[in-house]
Amino acid sequence: MDKYILDKNFVPYLNEANITEAVSRIASSINVDYADKIPLFIAILNGSFIFAADLYKKINVPSEISFVKLSSYAGTQSSGSVTTTIGLDVAINARDIIIIEDIVDTGKTLTTFIAALKKEGPSSIRVCALLHKQEATTHPIPIDYLGFTIPNLFVVGYGLDYNGFGRNLKGIHQLKES
Length: 178
Hints:
- The protein is of the alpha/beta class.
- The strands form 2 sheets. A 6-stranded mixed sheet has the order 5-4-3-6-7-8, with helices on both faces. A 4-stranded antiparallel sheet has the order 1-2-10-9.
- α1 packs across α2.
- The chain has helices at residues 16-33, 49-57, 108-118, and strands at residues 3-5, 8-14, 40-45, 64-74, 77-86, 96-104, 124-132, 145-149, 155-156, 172-175.
- The radius of gyration is 16 Å and the shape is globular.
- The longest helix is centred in the first third of the chain and has 18 residues, at 16-33.
- The chain has one domain (3-71, 82-175): 3-Layer(aba) Sandwich (Rossmann fold), CATH 3.40.50.2020.
- The protein is built from 3 helices and 10 strands; from the N terminus they run ββαβαβββαββββ.
């Protein structure tokens, strides 16, 4: 079913069942990989909040979660730099970090964030993303836990937005071509 958000029309791309299966698969891998560790999950707001919540409910190893809000835009244009608008409230030195991201596009924001984290001396940093637009990536980074590789589509739902709207859609919808 088409969804109209502001002035755009979106059509279904990934349904709720597809997403739930991917979240379960990712959580199972993390639970195995971190069976003898205590990871610190860092969710990048705003887009990853639904994915992070669903994922974290399936994590059964001792762990913590924190949140950061990063910005690389001024208005509708990229500023060319990444700034932290809400920072970490926990120390990460000697910690095993798992970054939770909704979607990896160009990779610029994540590359910059990882470089900043490395200065704080964590034991390890891994990346967990629900979606990866491999065709759009200009700053390649390893994604250790991935839900889906998608084409270079504009998508909304399950935390992803169009001008702040559409995050509450249960599935993921793509922009309908005119």
